[in-house]
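A brief tutorial aside. Many learners find it easier to grasp structure tokens once they have seen a single protein encoded end to end. The record that follows does exactly this for Glycosyltransferase involved in cell wall biosynthesis. Read the sequence first, then the structure, and try to relate runs of similar tokens to stretches of the chain.
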Amino acid sequence: MDASGLRVALFSGNYNYVRDGANQALNRAVAYMLRRGASVRVYSPTTDTPAFEPAGELVSAPSFPVPGRGEYRVPWCLSSRLRRDLAAFAPNVVHVASPDPLCHRAISWARARSLPIVASVHTRFETYPRYYGLAFLEPAVEAILRRFYRRCDAIVAPSESMAQLLREQRMSYDVGIWTRGIDREIFRADRRDLGWRESLGIAPDVPVIGFVGRLVMEKGLDVFSDTIDLLAERGVAHRVLVVGDGPAREWFENRLPNAVFAGFQKGPDLGRAVASMDMLFNPSVTETFGNVTLEAMACGLPTVAARATGSESLVSEGVTGRLIRPGAIGAFADALGQYCMDADDRARAGAAARQQAERYGWDQVNQALVDTYLRVVRQRVHGTVVRSSPVP
């Protein structure tokens, strides 16, 4: 069998109603599979105002808003309507992309029919409680995730560092890599635009520390703010440029009154914004890959990031940027200060980052996911799948 023989039922908690790195990766994968002749059916919550048009056929799943985070929705059941649709589609592999109630039910549905199941890991859900004062829940969340992933034939992670963490957490005996690619037409160093920077009130000779991403606390906004405060105390010349939007924007604006908030950007405008920075600061520990880090690298920026999953697989310490112990405000400030004050060091690291980003292409990346599908289908046909949990 090749890709044209695949019939993939993909379940996701967010396929296109809010734009983020995870669902954009899923949409790119679906578009790639359709070009290769595969059949794909996507089951996910929908809204009347989606962030972008979905790739492939999207079937709306019953859902409700997340309490306190109404922009996200929880798909809560595999309804009789969805079951009829699945039966008519007759998939030969099931892909679950989030540990929500719908995906739990999809796994049970697939196991009852002896269908192979692949799970993709997009974020470190077990770390989220610490950002809401509920760190004591992390072991329980990790246990729930372990049960979820062990009911699948294989799981795929976006970076080797994340894959290794999943192995250490005993999430699965079969952990592969489905990394992320880069759109080289959008993210290029030559999109740098000092005129655009000046229109935002940023002088051309002031080094710009950038933040790119959804403005939510789990992205490390508190660490980012504290680090910028320390840089200011040290008298290091800089400006902060924030690209993105989200529910914590007001908090972030109040914390960083001298920062420039450019709001949500996409396509060539996003490429221009990233390329017009001088360095990226990514203190998050929830990333499993770090799309924004790769995009910054492709634009020729050094990155100062937390030494955590995702970033560890992208940033070469002392070569393309700096990896700092999570939460180490002083060390973050040291690294950013060095890049702010030494333009030559910044340029060397940026050039190395751009060269390293060249090896990430979307077609090669998505073929790895297709290869995983084909492998688990083949293993199921030949009866060689090793179940890591007997739970039905």
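Self-check: The mean pLDDT is 93. If you spotted this yourself, you are ready for the next section.
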